Amino acid sequence: MPRLSPPVAFAVVAATFVWFLAASSAPSPLYVVYQETFAFSEFTLTTVFAVYVLALIAALLVAGSLSDHIGRKPVLLGAIGLEAVSLVLFLLADGVGWLLVARVVQGVATGAATATLPATLVDLAARGDRPERAGVVNGTAPLSGLAVGSLGCGLLVEYAPAPTRLVWALLLAGLVLAAVLVALIPETIDRRPGALASLRPRVGVPPRVRSGFAVIVPILLASWALAGLYLSLGGSVVAQVFGVRDHLVGGLTVVALVGTGAVTAFALRGRVPVTLLVPAAWLLAAGTVVSLAGVLTGVLALAAVGAVVAGLGFGSAAYATFGTMSTLAAPHERGELFAALYTLAYLAFSVPAMVAGVAATLGELRPTALVYGGVVAVLAVVAAVLGRRVPVPATGEPVPAPTRGS
């Protein structure tokens, strides 16, 4: 069977990464439609959102380092197969139960893929003598995928027929093509023993990179918690707080954050990632505060400006975190390391959003969004303050964070 060259394989894996995340964000503009069609509460809405993330985290914990043992391709092809099953379930969905099952299956598939795709990109970039590309793509692909899924689905829901069916059929067709191309990429890891033992649920950060990992925790929590608010309740806020029922606007709300983030992360390529931690935190804080002012006053334009500013911070944070981590781990540590990184990110992405869903169901959506955003802004300020203590040597390479008491 022919094999794709490392540069072509890199492009295939990057596109697959974007497609997986596009599928994961596609439900965001649809949540309002499903809510009206199946008559469920804000709590149920965020439950549908959260079960996906919790299933994703479970997959990361179980299969996060599996590709380090059996190879990248088997895990990627298995994840693509599961993702296809989830898209078929979405196509057939006629109630909340179907949505929950589809999101759980999708979460497992995306979790396995999310741990493996970044490691594969790092491997292929090294083979193609362009190792710096991996950090750029790992920082931009997830955000690009989230933006593409939200915008594309918003357009289809507003202007195309069968809004709850067509998007899943298109995503499924793209996934079939991805499966064919991924089957042709070269394997980048030699098989090694310990595959069954690696399935024991755990979060692992190699000891020699733990100090670098700790540096990125505060900004990771702030940025992904904000993304969780936009992707779970963003459409509802647009409809209920601002009174806008256009589904495209709901999709654009997500794009304002993650689309801006994707462009920002790409524009920052070549910059030393660790130097961006503090500016990213301040941008996140400022953008969130401006968005909260829009929610408080009911001015959608103000909230949109805040989302764009926060998106600048989100993209900077993504580049800073994933760019730093891409360079620190050895090949057989990357699967486990990215699993830990995404586990933390998705916990921040899901748990606060589910709590917000409970609060919005028991109370009102506007004060819930205000409190949620306020907590994110405070956390971003804390990340900015702590980030100033991280020294950067003259070479520009990131260095370990100061130890306690230093």
Report on the structure:
- 78% of the residues lie in helices and 0% in strands.
- It is globular.
- The chain has 406 residues and is mostly helical.
- The termini are far apart.
- The longest helix is centred in the N-terminal third of the chain and has 32 residues.
Topology:
Blueprint: H1 6-25, H2 27-38, H3 42-63, H4 67-70, H5 72-92, H6 96-127, H7 132-159, H8 163-182, H9 195-198, H10 210-240, H11 247-267, H12 277-297, H13 300-326, H14 334-362, H15 365-387
Question: What descriptors fit this protein?
Answer:
single chain; 406 residues; mainly alpha; 15 helices; globular; disordered C terminus
Summary, kept brief:
By secondary structure, the chain is an all-alpha fold. It contains 15 helices and no strands.
Q: How does the overall form come out from the CA principal axes?
A: globular
Distance from N terminus to C terminus (CA atoms, Å) equals: 56 Å
Q: Please compute the radius of gyration using only Cα atoms.
A: 20 Å
Instruction: Flag low-confidence runs.
Output: 391-406
Q: How many helices does DSSP assign? A: 15
Relative strand content: under 5%
Number of strands: 0
> What is the mean predicted local confidence, pLDDT?
83
Helix/sheet category: mainly alpha
- The succession of helices and strands, N to C, reads HHHHHHHHHHHHHHH
Q: What percent of residues adopt helix (DSSP H or I)? A: over 70%
**What characterizes the major β-sheet?**
none
